[in-house]
Write a sequence for this structure.
């Protein structure tokens, strides 16, 4: 979706104004810690994928997405997910009180304190075996297809229609556009290098390039 | 830009109490439903607030500077090389390390959200997640670097890595001059988080090392 989250190349958002590295705390408020931990803990329930999580944060009015702080967007996403996935009802969320315990099958999966360290250290993978051979090879010229799906996608607007060169083939990874709709499917994934002039025309910064990771469905041969 | 509006005013002042109340209500509800173990929440916060952080990535960098065979492994198969040091898990499943040289400088961003290599850098700073950085890193990397006080010669190529997949990037900064005699542990002390994102260079001893 062409939402408020797709920010590459946008103007007018002000200076970066970083806090000095040595002074910046990991969290700035106690409630941020709780939102962060609630998001990780509930993800262990297996009711949504990482892409469904991202899409829940993106599906806000762009003005809200940009106005909110980072963890406010996490909260907005989590409130949406727990209701949409039926973990709590909209009435329960509005009332702030439960009408009964969650399904036993889901409660079996609750992340216990004793399991946190092991769960976090686990070596996961987003690779998915696919039968189809990769369509592109390192060095191929490819064009990022000019597509504007209304659902979740990880093809940023600023590369659409632009030509780049395949830098690496990563193998096949979970395809976000389908994953956000609840389907775990693999597609070949590539790192594609775009020259700054191709992306930004006469505004390009000299001697620079952008590498974006793009799934095969986002690409076509550029000859 | 007038500079009058600071994007993160919000982050540095007390939030509307409405937000804190909403979080508390959601947490209570999920606990009452039996969906969350409150002790697990505390354990998660403890790990990401105090255990995981850029000191991990700094050790990876220091080892690469000290051990050429480790560096080769890191550039060839970063996931395995980093896992060998015990840094694995969420948001670090598929790692790539990109090397700065006298002619190439790398910079990492996530224009679509906030993807960041948690096992080696911890959670990202506010600026990395903020719209100003996410919008400009890909279009004006030299301007962004200048805001961090980093000036590069015009002929140094800048490569910006937009983390649009589950692959995560760590910058291997250039080892500063005058560090030949330093141990791996001493070298790690020089490596800042910002250098591993690519917005700064690693400073030589005496130029001002990160406080960690």
């Amino acid at each position: 979706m062409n939402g408020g989250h797709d920010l590459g190349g946008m103007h007018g958002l002000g200076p970066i104004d970083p806090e000095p590295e040595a002074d910046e705390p990991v969290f700035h408020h106690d409630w941020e810690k709780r939102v962060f931990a609630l998001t990780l803990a509930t993800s262990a329930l297996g009711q949504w994928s990482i892409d469904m999580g991202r899409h829940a944060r993106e599906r806000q009015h762009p003005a809200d997405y940009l106005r909110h702080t980072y963890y406010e967007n996490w909260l907005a996403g989590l409130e949406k997910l727990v209701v949409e996935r039926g973990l709590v009802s909209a009435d329960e969320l509005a009332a702030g009180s439960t009408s009964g315990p969650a399904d036993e099958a889901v409660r079996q999966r609750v992340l216990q304190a004793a399991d946190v360290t092991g769960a976090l250290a686990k070596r996961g993978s987003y690779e998915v075996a696919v039968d189809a051979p990769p369509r592109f090879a390192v060095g191929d010229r490819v064009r990022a297809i000019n597509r504007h799906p209304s659902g979740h996608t990880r093809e940023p607007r600023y590369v659409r229609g632009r030509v780049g060169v395949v830098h690496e083939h990563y193998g096949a990874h979970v395809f976000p556009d389908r994953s956000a709709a609840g389907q775990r499917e693999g597609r070949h994934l590539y790192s594609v290098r775009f020259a700054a002039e191709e992306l930004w025309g006469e505004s390009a910064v000299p001697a620079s390039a952008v590498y974006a990771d793009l799934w095969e469905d986002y690409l076509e041969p550029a000859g | 830009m007038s500079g009058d509006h600071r994007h993160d005013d919000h982050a540095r002042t007390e939030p509307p109490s409405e937000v804190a109340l909403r979080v508390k209500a959601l947490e209570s509800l999920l606990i009452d439903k039996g969906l969350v173990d409150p002790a697990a929440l505390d354990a998660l916060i403890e790990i990401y607030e105090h255990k995981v952080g850029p000191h991990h990535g700094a050790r990876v960098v220091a080892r690469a500077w000290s051990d050429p065979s480790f560096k080769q492994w890191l550039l060839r198969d970063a996931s395995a090389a980093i896992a060998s040091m015990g840094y694995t898990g969420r948001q670090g499943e598929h790692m790539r390390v990109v090397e700065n040289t006298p002619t190439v400088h790398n910079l990492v961003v996530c224009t679509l959200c906030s993807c960041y290599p948690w096992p080696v850098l911890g959670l990202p700073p506010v600026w990395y997640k903020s719209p100003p950085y996410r919008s400009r890193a890909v279009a004006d990397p030299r301007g962004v670097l200048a805001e961090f006080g980093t000036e590069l010669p015009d002929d140094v190529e800048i490569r910006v890595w937009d983390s649009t997949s589950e692959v995560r990037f760590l910058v291997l900064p250039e080892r500063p001059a005058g560090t030949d005699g330093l141990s791996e542990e001493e070298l790690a002390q020089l490596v800042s988080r910002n250098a591993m994102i690519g917005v700064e260079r690693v400073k030589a001893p005496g130029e001002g090392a990160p406080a960690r």
